[in-house]
Every structure is written in structure tokens, then in C-alpha cells.
Write a structure and sequence with these properties.
alpha+beta; seven-stranded antiparallel beta sheet; six-stranded mixed beta sheet; 8 helices; 33% strand
Length: 425
């Protein structure tokens, strides 16, 4: 048997980590991966502003004198979390051959991949705005309602993914299989999560990482007519200081926010008139009630929701501002806010456009540690922008070796209007 050196130990554990991790990227591979220069993150406190697609107003007529439109440059604030680590100390009796390093590499990768998949699932569950309830007995019917909503909202058709929770996968598996929509070996589905392609317009995955969505019947009332314009950055004309604004949110005053929780989905009704969603491109009024997610509760009389409800009927908005409209009519004083997730506890399935969730990757310069005598290793995990970092050190007093491996990322909902929850009742 070849002599096990510290360099070889690090390499064995790292390569085993990478081989294991890349086979368990079920939700990770569905998201947009963004590598950000580490110096940019350093100088911005691990928070950066990411650009959002502009929209253009349509102007009718031949003579357009005086009708020039401005540009609203929207941004959202993306954050990098803290490193997700595995730190293990092995005694000299544990490291006489390479088996411990291989086993630890597999376990470290499995747990890191699980944590990231869960972070993605929880982000969509808690901040995705598209929500529907459905009692279809057919899997195609249940999934097809999500396609119907995304079609009406004119969300791009590429990269659409539907993630069945375990309960819904069990419920609809026979039905979907009978229609020959499922594919591949069971073990491949377990590793990658993919169980079908182009089913009712989605690639279909399964995930056991989706948590419970709590709720119950609940309403409150809006206080005051609401007028929201799209948020762009501002420039102080005197100082030249640029201020960015997060385009996603709006704070709505209500009579009482008690009982609501982060992750709740709500819709709005002016008297007997439901506030409806609009088509993204042509502003066609849909028959789908506009839904938004509560992302914070500032106090007892306000809720913060994503996305920002911008009304096509709002006379205070300019033509350019109306090109960002996502609802047909303003939310008025006395409007009823109704919680959509009326079950006390349920596990939803999720659906998304792949570009709507962004994984921001962080890395570190390990040369400083290498100069201190530690063994180091860093490598980008294939198929992602995530960097695996590893450090190895030994202690002659304790007769042990310490190994730390980590990945560093932040999961961000770049467009909460393009992902959400499907609830079976």
C-alpha cells in the first residue's frame, strides 16, 4: 500500500467530495449560477446589486413630439450567506489508510448538497409569489394549472421546472407513469431528482427538501388607496451619490397583521372585484387572481409583500411606469387581503422559471493559509460556479489531523413573480 501523505489525503477527500456532490444537484442545477468577483463582495459587505430586465412602453401615433420616455433601471439586492462547513478531527488511528478520507468526502458532499437544495426549496416556498390550490386527481391536471398560469403571465417558456414534493409524487406517480411521462432508472431519479421531461410544459423533478407550509383561513383590510410605481435607482443631483432600491417589495398598511407569517400567500379583493394579474408583455388581464408572498411583517399594521403590485389603472403612473404593471387595478382602501394557504399545515410542490433563482458563489484566497504551513485545495465543482475549499492541518501534541471543507453561497429570488407554490387539497 502506498504511503498516505497529507497532500494525498486532501486530494482524496476533495475529489470524492466533488464526485459525490455533482450527483446530488437536484435543485441546484435548475437555478442560475453567478460567480461574483470576491473583491466586489469584500467591498460591499457580501451584498451586491444585480440588474433586472428593462421594460419598454408602447407609444401609438405618427408624431411623437414630447413623448420621449426615460429608463427605469431596476435592481435587486443579492446577498452571500456564510460558508457551509464540515470540520472534522481525526486521530492518528483513524487515518492509517485512505478509507476515512473517502467516506468523509462522501458524507461532507451529501450534507452540503442537501443543505443547498433545502435552501433553494425554502426560498421558493417562502418568497415565490405564484400560488394556486388544486384538487385534480390527475397529475397532468395538477401540473398543467401551473403551466396555465405561467402562460397567461407570459413568463418565458424555456427552463420551466416543476418540483413535486414527496406526497404529490406518490399521489400522481401511477397516473403520470401511465401516460409515459416518467423516465429513467429509479436510482437516477433519486440522485438527480428528475423524473420526467416536457410534462405539461415543465421538466419534472421530485424533492424531499420541501418543508411544511403553515396557514389557515385569515383576512385583514387595507387602509388607504395603494399606489406603487416601479422602483429604480436614484442619483443625487448635487452630490452624484447613487442610491439603489430593491425593485421586488412593497409595504402595505392593513388594519391588523397579527396572525400572518413570512411565507404566507395573499390575494386582494376590492369589494366584489378581485385584483387580477396581467400578461408580462401585452398587459392582457388574466382570470388569475394576483398573489403575493409576505416576506416580512414590519409591525402590527403593515405587511411587506413580493412582488411590488403596480397597477395599470393607476393614473399617477407615467407611460413608462405602466409598462411595468403587473395588476389590472389598484388595491383600494378597504380591500380584503385573504390568505391563500388556508390549510393549517401542508407540503406544497414548487414550480419555477430557472433564471428566477440565482445562486451567488463566494470563494476565498487560500494562499494565506498555505503560507502558514497548512495543506489547501480549491476547485470549481463541475456544472456549477461553486468552489470547494479545503484545508488540512495536524497537531503533534494531540496526534491528530484536522480537516475543514466548505462551499460558500447565497440563494436569492431574483424574480419572485416567476416561481411559487402548488397546493393540493
Amino acid at each position: 500500500m502506498a504511503t498516505l501523505t497529507s497532500g494525498k489525503a486532501v486530494e482524496i477527500m476533495a475529489e470524492t467530495f466533488i464526485d459525490t456532490f455533482k450527483e446530488q444537484t437536484s435543485l441546484i442545477e435548475l437555478c442560475k449560477s453567478v460567480r461574483v468577483d470576491k473583491s466586489a463582495l469584500q467591498n460591499a459587505g457580501n451584498s451586491i446589486w444585480r440588474p433586472v430586465r428593462q421594460r419598454s412602453a408602447s407609444i401609438a401615433g405618427t408624431d411623437l413630439t414630447g413623448q420621449q420616455q426615460g429608463v427605469i433601471k431596476q435592481m435587486y439586492q443579492a446577498t452571500l450567506g456564510t460558508p457551509d462547513n464540515d470540520l472534522v478531527e481525526l486521530s492518528v488511528t483513524d487515518i492509517r489508510d485512505e478509507s476515512y478520507f473517502r467516506e468523509r468526502g462522501e458524507e461532507a458532499a451529501t450534507q452540503r448538497a442537501t443543505n443547498l437544495n433545502q435552501a433553494i426549496a425554502n426560498l421558493i416556498k417562502n418568497t415565490g409569489s405564484l400560488t394556486y390550490r388544486d384538487n385534480s386527481t390527475s397529475g397532468l391536471g395538477f401540473i398543467g394549472k401551473g403551466k396555465n398560469i405561467m402562460d397567461k403571465l407570459q413568463i418565458a417558456k424555456g427552463k420551466r421546472n416543476f418540483i413535486l414534493c414527496d406526497d404529490h409524487e406518490l399521489l400522481y406517480a401511477t397516473d403520470l407513469a401511465a401516460k409515459q411521462t416518467l423516465q429513467g432508472r429509479p436510482d437516477a431519479a433519486w440522485n438527480t431528482g428528475q423524473i420526467g421531461k416536457n410534462v405539461a410544459g415543465f421538466d419534472i423533478y421530485s424533492s424531499s427538501s420541501i418543508g411544511l407550509l403553515l396557514g389557515g383561513a385569515l383576512t385583514t383590510t387595507v387602509t388607504g388607496n395603494q399606489s406603487f410605481a416601479p422602483l429604480g435607482g436614484t442619483v443625487n443631483q448635487a452630490t452624484g451619490v447613487v442610491t439603489n432600491n430593491d425593485f421586488r417589495g412593497a409595504i402595505i398598511p392593513v388594519t391588523a397583521s397579527a396572525g400572518y407569517a413570512v411565507g404566507d400567500s395573499v390575494n386582494y379583493t376590492n369589494g366584489a372585484t378581485t385584483v387580477k394579474s396581467l400578461g408580462f408583455a401585452d398587459k392582457t388581464v388574466t382570470n388569475h387572481a394576483f398573489t403575493s408572498s409576505i416576506v416580512s411583517i414590519p409591525d402590527g399594521t403593515h405587511i411587506e409583500v413580493w412582488p411590488r403590485p403596480i397597477a395599470l389603472s393607476d393614473a399617477a403612473l407615467s407611460l413608462t411606469e405602466k409598462s411595468y404593471a403587473n395588476i389590472n387595478t389598484q388595491i383600494l382602501n378597504g380591500a380584503t387581503v385573504t390568505r391563500v394557504n388556508t390549510d393549517s399545515s401542508t407540503t406544497p410542490s414548487l414550480f419555477m422559471h430557472g433564471d428566477s433563482i440565482e445562486i451567488i458563489s463566494g470563494d476565498v484566497d487560500l494562499n494565506l493559509f498555505k503560507q502558514g504551513g497548512q495543506m489547501t485545495f480549491s476547485k470549481t465543482i463541475p456544472g456549477t460556479d461553486l468552489q470547494l475549499c479545503m484545508l488540512y492541518d495536524s497537531d503533534i501534541v494531540k496526534f491528530s489531523a484536522t480537516m475543514r471543507c466548505f462551499i460558500w453561497y447565497g440563494v436569492n429570488n431574483a424574480n419572485p413573480g416567476a416561481n411559487g407554490r402548488a397546493i393540493k387539497f
